[in-house]
Write a structure and sequence with these properties.
This protein has 5 helices and 3 strands, in the order ααβββααα. It is mainly α.
Length: about 180
């Protein structure tokens, strides 16, 4: 129990430190999030992006800029806390693997969620547009799309982790003769 509290405290401290850093670093230092998302969006939507210093990745064909607010830093940190808590609570990983494992899985989830968020937003604001969506201003729609996509990704990711751990616990071990 004591070990769990220490691990959780370290994860929360890391969350606070990284949250502060995400707010003060220049956009160029968020390239570890922005570059792969830009590449994936470019691949999925056939739109090459180019980096503009101080702004982010511009996709002229899509008329978007993937910038600081699209980096997914907050989502990365929230999914890191959720994943860390899950690993600690379920004793799913050895203690020294909790932080790197949670960071890696959260990073990959963040990339997928951001591509989903951007793609979803572009679908909703496409040439035809969806009539009800056209009544909402683009900033509100961008925010709403992010909330829904991020929440759906977090919920599904939690259930996937739960399923993997429950399957691992129910698999019988073969006895060695």
């Amino acid at each position: 129990m004591n070990k769990e509290i220490i691990h959780l405290a370290v994860c929360v401290a890391l969350f606070i430190l990284l949250r502060y850093l995400f707010g003060v670093v220049p956009v160029e230092m968020l390239d570890f999030l922005l570059w792969p998302v830009s590449k994936l969006v470019g691949f999925c939507l056939n739109s090459p992006g180019r980096f503009v210093e101080g702004a982010g990745y511009v996709h002229e064909g899509l008329q978007i800029i993937i910038e600081r607010s699209c980096a997914g830093g907050n989502f990365l940190l929230i999914s890191f806390l959720m994943t860390s808590w899950f690993f600690i609570h379920e004793k799913a990983l050895r203690s020294w693997l909790i932080i790197p494992g949670a960071l890696l899985l959260s990073y990959l989830l963040t990339l997928l969620a951001n591509v989903g968020r951007i793609t979803g937003y572009l679908v909703l604001t496409g040439k035809e547009g969806i009539p009800l969506v056209m009544l909402i201003d683009k900033h509100s729609l961008h925010t709403f799309t992010g909330i829904v996509v991020y929440l759906v990704f977090l919920i599904f990711f939690y259930f996937i982790l739960q399923k993997i751990v429950s399957n691992k616990k129910t698999v019988p071990h073969e006895e060695v003769a």
